[in-house]
Every structure is written in C-alpha cells, then in structure tokens.
Sequence to fold (174 residues):
Amino acid sequence: SSSFSSILGGENNSLSRSYASTIVGGQGNGITGSGASFIVGGSTNQVFLDNLPGTYLFNGIVGGVSNLITGSYIDRSIIVGGGSNKIFSDLSNTDYGTICGGISNRIQDSIIASIVGGSSNIIESVGNTISTGFASIGGGFSNKIKGITGAYGTSIVGGYANEITGSGGTSNIL
Fold:
C-alpha cells in the first residue's frame, strides 16, 4: 500500500509501497518504494527503488518518455524531460543527481552529478570508487566521467566521446 500518496489524473499510472508520493497526469507512470517523490506528466516514467518505503526520498521526474530512477540508494534526484534517461544506484548512494533533457543519458553511483542535454553521456563510479563533488556534462554525445573520487568541479562541456577517468582532482574538457 501507499500511505498519504495520490494519483491526480492521467491514465494507467500506479503507486506502490510509497509514502507521501504523487503522480500528476501522464500515462503509464509509476512510483514504487519511494517517499515524498513525484512524477508530473510524460509517459512510462518510473521511480522504482528497492528499499523500505520512506528510506530514500525526494526523487522526481517531470515529463519526458521512459525516464527511470531506480536502485537501492537514491535521494534528492530528478530527471526533467528527455527520453530513456536513467539515474540509478548499484554500489552506493546516488544523491542530488540531475538530468535535464537529452536522450539515453545516465548517472550511476555518483553524488552531486548533472547532465544537461546531449545523448548517451555517462557519469558513473568504477569498481569501488564513487564519483563525488559536482561532476557535470553539458551536452554532446557519448561523453564519460568515470571513477572520480573527491573531484570538485570535474566537467565536460559538449563534444564527442570525451572521457575523464580516475581523477582525484579537478579536470575539465571544454
């Protein structure tokens, strides 16, 4: 059951094991296992967390198609528009992740990471490392920030197939 949760309009939307979560409009959207989360509009967007309801909170999706927030440890993350974008946790926390638009972009096991537009861009941990500290990709295609630990301000701004891997300090590709 979902306590203090609601679905306002739309078609074939669903809430399960969620606390204080809301879906407004759209079609085929769903929230499972999350607290204080939301989906507004769009189609087949999902917030699906593998944990006790209310443990990981404040995730949202606004519009778009087939966007997904999933895993075990995700807090305060959002996807705005676009299609087939994904924020997920596999190894550890993914907190404050943001994807704005674009298609097939991914943030995994990273803290305070953002991708703005573009296609097939990735910010992720590698092995036991965690991407932390304001990693960002601003558009482009197939850019990657991987295995960054304690890198404050690591960024890629556009381009194609640029990669920053295993850095312990600030790195930028413009």
In short: The chain has a mean pLDDT of 88. The first strand starts at residue 6 and ends at 8. DSSP finds no helices and 21 strands in the chain.
